[in-house]
Write a structure and sequence with these properties.
mainly beta; Porin; eight-stranded antiparallel barrel
Length: 198
């Protein structure tokens, strides 16, 4: 069922459709569908970037040219790793809650905040991996207003706390061998369906 929902959204909203409507409290609520590129802090011979997807809800409170945003997203992050010259792609399922402040000036907008990442389930991860159930990422983003309804959006995410540990057992205790941080670039188009102020 989950895969069917993702496929439908990808077909209907191929470039990151962001449908929103204005509320009486100068807020905006919408849905979004985006794409992202993920990488981690490993040697480039071990790790290469991988593509993932995002769908979610957007909630924005605006005042003048500024806004406070609290989103809710379902994200699939991927990670390519090479062992013995063989590539393995790991897939991570997350619920994320981005909280960020936005500033709009003419056609250019800037976003700054953080993202709460809650891990749901991980596919094909070795037993010595330990994925944090919760970690935090710094969010830095920008938007470009193409016209009154169409915008291009780019967000850069950098983990502040590790998303993954590698460990070994020393008797009954775990010895952490390394901690890893993920970097993400999320991009797409956003489209405003209804704007009460226009």
């Amino acid at each position: 069922m989950k895969n069917k929902i993702i496929i439908i959204l990808l077909l209907v909203l191929p470039f990151s459709l962001h449908a929103q409507y204005k509320l009486n409290i100068n807020g905006a609520v919408g849905i979004e569908n985006g794409y992202l590129i993920s990488s981690i802090n490993l040697d480039k011979n071990i790790n290469t970037p991988a593509y993932g997807y995002q769908v979610g809800l957007v909630n924005s409170y605006s005042f003048k040219k500024n806004s406070l945003n609290v989103d809710l997203s379902y994200i699939i992050k991927k990670d390519n790793r090479y062992f013995d010259n063989k590539k393995t792609t790991y897939k991570y399922h997350y619920i994320t809650i981005p909280v960020y402040y936005g500033i709009q000036k003419n056609k250019i907008g800037f976003n700054l905040g953080f993202t709460n990442n809650f891990a749901l389930n991980i596919e094909k991860v070795p037993s010595d991996f330990f994925i944090n159930k919760y970690n935090v990422s710094l969010l830095l983003g920008g938007t470009y207003k193409i016209n009154e309804k169409l915008n291009f959006r780019l967000d850069l995410l950098h983990d502040i706390t590790p998303f993954d540990y590698i460990y070994s057992y020393n008797g009954s205790e775990k010895d952490i061998l390394g901690s890893y941080y993920m970097y993400n670039a999320m991009f797409g188009l956003s489209y405003t369906i209804f704007d009460k102020n226009n």
